[in-house]
Structures are given as structure tokens and as C-alpha cells.
UniProtKB/TrEMBL annotation:
It comes from Brevibacterium spongiae. Residues 7-160 form the Oxo-4-hydroxy-4-carboxy-5-ureidoimidazoline decarboxylase domain. Coiled coil: none annotated. InterPro entries: OHCU_decarboxylase, OHCU_decarboxylase-2, OHCU_decarboxylase_sf. It catalyses: 5-hydroxy-2-oxo-4-ureido-2,5-dihydro-1H-imidazole-5-carboxylate + H(+) = (S)-allantoin + CO2. This is 2-oxo-4-hydroxy-4-carboxy-5-ureidoimidazoline decarboxylase. SUPFAM superfamilies: UraD-Like.
């Protein structure tokens, strides 16, 4: 789909296109209402800027679609397909990296009671591990803000892929 087609979609169809990017009604409604976009950059700016920051309830709802980093998404949903593509850049993880991610994921889940979420696209496994370790020192509020920002970054990347 290109931008012109996205701009022409009826609102409900546009909502359906956006939902796999970020399943947050307020974000979806904001992006749909901002159409038509003059160019892809404007659409991505709207996706990144117009509905942030995400509220805790929105983050909790959106997180239900995200697998652990380093694990394959389950199912055949659009969200699972996006996640698989995003994590594909990690390649086949070495056993040491895989075990460090598994241990880090477990520690993070124990600390924050949710899976560790990070935009995987464009990051190496070492960068992801470093971010996981850094974020373990976050307060609950700081981590919530970081997760919200990561969700928005992921949403913008997914929208860019749709409009490419």
C-alpha cells in the first residue's frame, strides 16, 4: 500500500491497517484523523509524535501482542508477522547470547511484571542486552515511559513498512 491509498481509505479501513502497528485506540484515532498526509515523513511524524506519551493502560494493552525479545512470535497474526521481521535482524543467536537474553528476560519480568520490550530493528544482540541491563535500574515510572517510547518507535517502523 502506498501513502495515497492509505490517505483515501475509509476511516475504519485505515484503523484496521494501523491496529497491527500499535493496538492503542487513541493512537490509531489520532493518526487516522491527521490524514491526509502530504508525504510519508509527515505520516511517520504523526505516528511518533501526535499521541504520545502512552498511558499505562494503553501500554499494558499493547504489550499483549509482543513476544519476548529473542523468541519467535506465536500465531499468524499481522502483529506476529511484524515481530518476526523486526527480530529477524538479530539473526541466529549464539547459545551464550540466547542464554543471556533468557536470563535477562526472566529478571526483567520478575522486576517489572511484563516482558522486556525494545525496538529490535537496527540493533545488535549486544546492544539489546546492554539496554536490558541498563533498564533494570529504572524506576517503575521511568521504565513505563521507556516502554511507551519503544512501542511508538515500533509502531512508526511498522507504518513505514506498510507505506513503503
Amino acid at each position: 500500500m502506498d501513502l495515497a491509498e492509505f490517505n483515501r481509505l475509509p476511516a475504519e479501513a485505515a484503523r484496521n491497517v494501523l491496529r497491527p502497528c500499535l493496538d492503542v485506540d487513541r493512537w490509531i484515532d489520532t493518526v487516522v484523523a491527521a490524514r491526509p498526509f502530504p508525504d510519508v515523513d509527515a505520516a511517520l511524524a504523526s505516528a511518533r509524535d501526535d499521541a504520545g506519551p502512552l498511558r499505562t493502560d494503553e501500554i499494558d494493552a499493547a504489550m499483549s501482542h509482543h513476544p519476548r525479545i529473542g523468541e519467535k512470535a506465536k500465531g499468524d497474526s499481522a502483529e506476529a508477522a511484524h515481530s518476526s521481521r523486526e527480530q529477524a535482524g538479530l539473526g541466529t543467536l549464539e547459545a551464550d547470547v540466547q542464554s543471556q537474553l533468557a536470563a535477562g528476560n526472566a529478571a526483567y519480568e520478575e522486576r517489572f511484571d511484563r516482558v522486556f520490550l525494545i525496538r529490535a530493528a537496527g540493533r545488535t544482540p549486544a546492544e539489546i542486552l546492554s539496554e536490558l541491563q541498563r533498564r533494570m535500574d529504572n524506576t517503575e515510572a521511568d521504565e513505563n515511559a521507556e516502554v511507551g517510547e519503544q512501542l511508538i518507535q515500533i509502531a512508526a517502523l511498522r507504518l513505514e513498512g506498510i507505506l513503503a
